Structures are given as C-alpha cells and as structure tokens.
Amino acid sequence: MTDDTREDSREDDAAEERHASWLELFFDLVVVAGIGALAHLLHEDSTAGGVGLYAVAFTAFWLVWACFTTYGNLRAARTQVATMLVGMAALAVMTASVFAIDEHGGAFAVAYVVGRFVASRPWNRGTVVVDLPVVQAGIGIVPWVVSWWFVGTAQHVLWAVGLGLDLMLVLSSSRGRMVADMQRRLERVRAGRDGRRSRRGRGRIADRDIPATLDVAEADLPHLAERMSLFMLIVLGESLIQAIDGAADAVWGRPLAVTAAGVFVLVVGLWAASVQRGSAGVALLAPGLLAPRLAWVAHLVTTGAVATLAAVVATFTAAPQSVVSAHDRTLVVVALAVYGAAGVAVHLGVALTRPPARSAVRRASLVRAACVGLPITLAVGAALLHRDGTAERFVWELAGGVVLVLVADGLASGRLGRRSPGRPGHQGAVDSSSS
C-alpha cells in the first residue's frame, strides 16, 4: 500500500466517523436535569446515610444512562426512537423522585427496573454485548424488584446490593469467557430444539428465533468516547449553573468575584484534564489505552467524584466569606482524592500491563501518573491543613491543584516529545484489544 493510499484511507475513516445524533443529544437533556436533582439530594442530607444514598442514586442513574448509551452506540442508524424515549421517561421519573426519595422511593425503583428492562430488549439470543455485559444481565435487577415491598433504609440497601452485583459482573467478566458462555448456551438451545423436532416430527420453534452463529457486538470506540465526554461536560456544566444561581443571591463584591473565579478555574481545569487531555473521565488518559469494559468503570468513578466535588464547590458562591463546614470540606477532599487516585491507578495499570516492547507507552504512563498524583496530593494536603479557611480560600486551593496537573503535563509533554492526549479531533478513548 502506497503512502497516498494510506492517506486516502485515513481521510475516508475520518469522513465516516460517527458523532452523537440529535436523538442522543435530546436524550442527554434528561441527564442534565438528573445531575441537578442528584446535587439537591447531596445538599439535603449531610449524614453518612445521606451521602451513601446519593452514591447509590448516582450509580443507578449513571447505569441506566450507560445502558441506553451502549444501545445507541451499537445500533447506530438502527436505533429506535421509541426505545430511547422510554429510556428518557424512565430517567425523568427517577429524576423527579430524587427530590423526595424517601416518599417516592418505589417510583424511583420501578423506573430503574423499567429502564434496565427496555435497554435489554433489543438484543437477540445470538448477540453478546462484551463491553457492558450488564445490558443483558438481569441478576442485578432482582434486588430492585424485591425493594418494591420495602421502604427507607432496607430499600436503599437492596438497591446497593443490586448495583454491587452489576459492577461485580463488569469487573469479573472477560470477552473470551462471555463469548464462550454464550456459544455454549446457544448450542444447548439449538440442541433442545432439534430434540423436540425429532420427537414431534416438526419444529415448533422458528429458526429465526435461534440464530446459527454468534454476533459479538463491539463498541464504536470514537463515538463511545464522545458520549462519555459529553456526560462529563454535563456534570461540569450543571456545577456552573449552580454556582451562577448561588452568586445571584450573594452580596456582590471582591469576595464573590474571587470565589466565582476560583470555581470557574476549577471547572475549566477539570474539563481540560478529563475531556480535552483525557478520556473516559480520567485525567490525562491518552486515547486507545483502556479497554471499553474498564473505561466504563473508570468513567463511573471519575464522574461520580467530579459530580460530588462540583456540586459542593458550586454552593461556595452563595457565601464566599463563610468558613467551609466540616461536612462539605470532607466531601470535597474525599471526592478530589478519589478523582486523583483513579487517575493514578489507571495510568499505573496501563504502565504495568504494557509489554517491554512498548516501553515508550509505559514510561509516558508513569509520568502521567506522577503528573496527576503529586498535584492532587498537594491540593488535598492544603485543604486538610487549613480547616478553618473560608470558601474564598478553599476553592483556590482546589483549583490550584488541578491547574498544577495541567502545568505538569505540559512540561512532561515537552520532555517526552509527545502530543497531548485527547487533542481536538483525536477522539478515540478506549481499546478493544484489551480484555
């Protein structure tokens, strides 16, 4: 193949690259409302139980979104409008229920089950979704159905159990095992059908219901990366909306200006680290280094941490000179620490799993781990030391840590002679070759 042919092939691939459809963008409008509602839940109950319920509700909301995002990603032009609209309706009911979740917990659980059920329907017996296996699995939904007959803490615990089962499935499954299990199941079904045909003389089960071959559904990687980034943008955008809302009722002056600028710098820094220079919500993660199944888990952890961080920090504009409460300080510090730890863990995992032949990737991943870990550690340490600091000062300690991540990455990029990951037009974020 000549250089001209290769260039033409790359141009054709770029021309055919999918982007989020109007239907998917319309679907995301409900996600915008949902993120705002979940932030309200975080503010309403400052106890450990309230934070735990927020984590469960966020994970449930995210998982329904992920299932329908996977559906749209895999079906592409064959995506059914009715299916996506039902998903929107389910998320809308979950969003409305959050504002009085103790009273409307049953509606939240019913909407979750309906959303998961509808997202699982489009796949036939011979299709295996390897990148997000919970789309086709029903075991995690069972505790949610049982929770319909409970209220309060018992109901919330059942939700957590169901989500835990789903996340365990994602973490413990592998492409090879999933394909082999589905193939054996398909062969058993066909054998049972052949047995019935031999006993009855004719088949009662239509051949079209039992495919002869297995269809392995794999993600459109650039499109999936874009959808994940859009979710992170929704999280960050909602935090700016809340910050603006708080500023509208505050006393306008220097403290508000300084605090608002700090919130803006923090949000922009998180966007630059997680979206512009990162992928799957992970700071500075270069494209093509994380398998889709693992990218989903990383996305849940990082978006959950950023959503918590942004929801709390956004309220600082309402009272910029007030001392940050111990509860809010703890939430923000833990969320930032989780965000940084997730980035470090992913980069170290990439470095440790790459063969010696890819030493450049290993070295770059180790450098990125340091670029994320050290500044975030400094920011967390500063936030812990100044326990009596005002919101005005606290937000800049956080923003400074994120800015240092970007500065460190810029310096390291020059030394390593590499392009910054996630540059515009470079959307791939996951690697289908990893299991």
From TrEMBL:
The chain crosses the membrane at residues 21-41, 53-74, 81-101, 130-151, 157-174, 256-273, 294-319, 331-353, 365-386, 398-417. InterPro entries: Low_temperature_requirement_A. The keyword Transmembrane applies. Keywords: Membrane, Transmembrane, Transmembrane helix. Pfam families: LtrA. This is Low temperature requirement protein A. It comes from Cellulomonas composti.
